[in-house]
Automatic annotation (TrEMBL):
SUPFAM superfamilies: AF1104-like. This is PANTOTHENATE KINASE. Residues 19-84 form the Damage-control phosphatase ARMT1-like metal-binding domain. GO terms for molecular function: kinase activity. Keywords: Kinase, Transferase. InterPro entries: ARMT-1-like_metal-bd_sf, ARMT1-like_metal-bd. Its cofactor is Ni(2+).
């Protein structure tokens, strides 16, 4: 885990904002198969931010979370734009979802 305020590594759960690797080399992310570090960090998360077409749209657009979620992406495929958002290629998606 990286404390974004000073860049130091910290295992404390009191870090207000963290960036954690997902353990996956693909632009998509299967949340059933993430690194143990990410699973532990996300356990008590207040907000999940999924950024990019692969993570926010392809694999998690309809995923529901126990905490708030923000899904951000630019759609770079016309078929996907029409199917998911009834839009056009290069439209941007900013989808906020409250905790379920």
């Amino acid at each position: 885990m990286i404390n974004t305020s000073d860049g130091s590594k910290d295992n404390s759960s009191s870090v207000p904002l963290m960036v954690v690797e997902n353990g996956c080399g693909s632009p998509c992310i299967d949340l059933r198969q993430v690194s143990s570090e990410l699973a532990a960090a996300a356990k008590d998360a207040d907000l999940i931010v999924l950024e990019g077409m692969g993570r926010a749209l392809h694999t998690n657009f309809n995923a529901q979370f126990k905490c708030e979620a923000l899904k951000l992406a630019m759609v770079k495929n016309q078929r996907l734009a029409e199917k998911l958002i009834k839009g056009n290629i290069y439209d941007c998606v900013c989808r906020y979802e409250p905790a379920s």
